[in-house]
User: Fold this.
Amino acid sequence: MITLPIRLRLTAWYFAVLAVMLSAFGVSAYFAMRHSIRRTVDEELQIRAEGVHQLIERDIQRGHKDDLPEGLREHTELRSGGALLQVSDDQGNWLYRSTVMSDYGVPRPTTIRNRATEFMGKDVPLRIWNEKVSVGGQSYLIQSAFEMDDFYEALHDFALLLFISIPTLLLCAAAGGYWISTRALAPVDQITQTARTISAQNLSSRLVVPPTGDELQRLSETLNGMLDRLEAAFKKITQFTADASHELRTPVAVMRTRAELSLRKARSADEYRDVIAEVLAELEKTSGLIEQLMFLARADSGTETPHFAATNVTDVLREACHQGSALAEAKQIAFEEKISTDSLWIQGDASSLRRLFLILIDNAVKYTPASGQIEVSLQRNNGFAIAEVRDNGIGIAEADLPNVFERFYRADKARTRELGGVGLGLSIGRWIAEVHAGTIEVHSSPGHGSTFQIRLPIAKPAA
Ligand code: ADP
Assistant:
């Protein structure tokens, strides 16, 4: 099906609605005018008939019945200003019939259905008023008539005027409507043109916003807002790809250099073992990184779906602490658990939650110097399970705090790389917290330590 451009469709609708309205107006104006003419003529004819009626009554009462035809002739020709009258009695005898009436051959109806009738006499339209009166026990039919040719000619001229002016008016209005809709929709064409030129290469281009304060201005602003968000998302992806390739290239380059150097000359078995151990350590880090990247890719594409079930956070956090305390012990960091024995049930995925807690505990160990302290706590508050991992390590500068949950963000690049971090742990952690309808927050001051707090909504206790 062919779809017409919107401006043509608007004009067509406009034309159709206007055509119906103007036609209705034309038809009603024509009939109203005809009705008004006929009513005026009928009133006049009725008055004349009434005059004749009075004359008949007067003559009969005076006993001048024989003078009636003469009286009627005089009355008609002298007083009523016209000769269009005929009067007959019940038997069909003419009491009086003017010459014009008999020339026109106006008939005498036997029964009267309508007092006002139309008759065509010698191509002249006549309007006839039929008044039946009863005087002195005898009934008479008074018929007064009017020549309508002038009126009907005027009516015909009026109809012709309507017939010519309405289509002309319609055409002008349709042309005007088309012009207005073309003008009104011109900015849409401009928006389309600009939008067509925007691609991944020039996502920073924006649509021109017409300062009209109308729907088109709002449309341009909304599209520009969408472009802002798209550009930001696109930049994030580009940055993520660049960071990911960079992080992967570094360990590969290290492993390659180590391998090449060791192959330059013959080495002892111990030397080879050292190199292989180094390469293995790099490989472990790299596969850890690849695993994190894969996790985030699955999270982005929606394929990483946690398996929600009634989960006791107390148990999960205890398990994470068990693993974490070993790491802390290895670094001579005091590790304290402040977890009550009460169960705290939430709807969650135990392995994702364990991963989240381990990320925080692992970070606390990484960023706390030897002989520091780590404290892990869990409590119930206002329908939430609140887990906290607190350390008295290096802390995070205020400027870095809003960014630590961003992918590949490291507060102190050189230092954290040394400690083995690539800046993906907290972004994974935030995703896990949010997918559990929870939140993750950090409070920190450099040199004094950091506290990471997770709030998870508590579900009904398990049976
Ligand atoms: P990484 O793998 O580098 O630790 P994360 O996403 O887990 O990545 O953390 C992002 C950055 O936040 C870290 O590089 C570090 O600068 C900072 N950070 C995270 N946890 C702590 C902490 N407990 N103490 C100090 N800094 C931290």
